[in-house]
Amino acid sequence: MPEVRRALRELLTHWGKPGRSEIAELLTSELVTNALVHTDRDAVLTATVSPGGLHVEVRDFVRRRPHVRMPTTDDGTHGRGLVLVQSLADAWGVRAHGVGKAVWFDLDAEAA
Questions:
Q1: Contact 75, 56 (CB under 8 A)
Q2: Which of residues 3 and 91 earns the better pLDDT score?
Q3: Which of 91, 102, 90 is closest to 39 using CA atoms?
Q4: What one GO molecular function would you report for this record (predicted)?
Q5: Which domain holds residue 43?
Q6: Cα separation of 54 and 92, whole Å?
Q7: How many Cα atoms within 13 Å fall on the side-chain side of residue 2?
Q8: What domain count does the chain have?
Q9: What CATH number should be reported for the domain holding residue 8?
Q10: Quick one: DSSP state of residue 40?
Q11: What integer pLDDT is reported at residue 74 of this predicted model?
Q12: How many CB atoms lie within 10 A of CB 84?
């Protein structure tokens, strides 16, 4: 996971308003962690940067779709990933692909 964060940080060095790259890093980390923890398999990360925004997609090889759930106090630090994505991303979603799914999010470079 540190390699993913470092690579994304380098990619986003001069991108967006202050704070946007940190949000992108957090959300990417959440999606990659979810893919690895909940599928027990590899994941493929794609990040596309444009002057207006960022699109991040994490593909895995399990068809089971993730569900947003409100974490409880019994969950400790678990169960917050998709809630964060839903709250902080400008758009997000899940789409099926050949042998699994892709969970993605978009961030506008200039959003507050």
A1: no
A2: 91
A3: 102
A4: ATP binding
A5: 2-108
A6: 12
A7: 0
A8: 1
A9: 3.30.565.10
A10: S
A11: 61
A12: 16
